[in-house]
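Hey, can you fold this?
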Amino acid sequence: MYLKIKRLIDIILSLLGLIILSPIYIILIITIKIESKGPVLFKQKRVGIYKSHFNILKFRTMRIDTPKDTPTHLLNNPEQYITKMGKFLRKTSLDELPQIWNVFIGQMSIIGPRPALWNQYDLISERDRCGANDVLPGLTGWAQVNGRDELPIPVKAKLDSDYVSNISFLMDTKCFFITFLTVLRKEGVVEGNQNLDTK
């Protein structure tokens, strides 16, 4: 029953987010275009509900000559590819804002396991065991408020399992507000390590 209400909450909050944050979107779009050539948005293939694939949206944080389909942590000196604006976007997590659209159209939820890359087979397999692939992935989730990039895959999957087992309005509300604290404190972000975005 809650899952139906959860989807309604996602639609309402994502629509409000798109409207309220529109001035910030405009400012970021202009700034990104002024600093570097290329598209404003970066699309990346991720795993959605029932292991379907979708394109997650982010503001582009790296130059267009960055090697394609190469995780940040596998690049030689990844810092050379990240734009100045990109560093700011990553540190503040503002590069994730376009995913509000993914939520609005039903590819993601506000709260849920973060969507794995299509080739993160170990994480996908671990999530299969706990049913975490059978719920919508989220903008943020229980694993994100308990470590983010610092977590090894088994621990991340265990936290995803805990979320799926205890999914409720109270759990989602808790994740929602703790997320703001972790973002403001910049906790758990490991640039160039397990942050697997290529642009």
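Oh, and this one too while you're at it.
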Amino acid sequence: METTERLILRKPQKEDFERFFEINKDPQTNLYNPSGPMSLEKAKNTFNRMLEHWNQNNFGAWAVLEKENPEEIIGFGGLSFKMYGEKEELNLGYRFAPEAWGKGYATEFSKKTIDFGFNDLNVKEIFGVVRPDNVASIKVLEKAGMEKTGKLNDVPDQPESLVYRIQK
């Protein structure tokens, strides 16, 4: 478990699936996702891959909770290996429920996650990928110290995603 000033980051458990699906099927949380809200089947696959990543690597996406209300998960995110075209990179990703937006949680979370990657995992660089029209997430990555380093053609027939990176 990790903590920030206002957040608790803990390893997800099977019981968290319902909340994971609730957040990921919400059209609001998928405004910039070309594939749209997650189906139940895709959510199950994604959640199982998330748990599997933990089993294989002993880190991954956390369940994110507010210290003030530790019963309710407000999002999921963390570091995981992701293919960037032909190359596997350590990716910073997150998705927060709309009621957690606008409070600076994503920036607080991202800074902590980068710190965890550099200091606990001892990695040299961390990447993030974001849709070009997702201004809020671009601001979060930049506030967390990441810089735009290129583009990634990861969604067919869509504008390229922006690739961000931070180095230790």
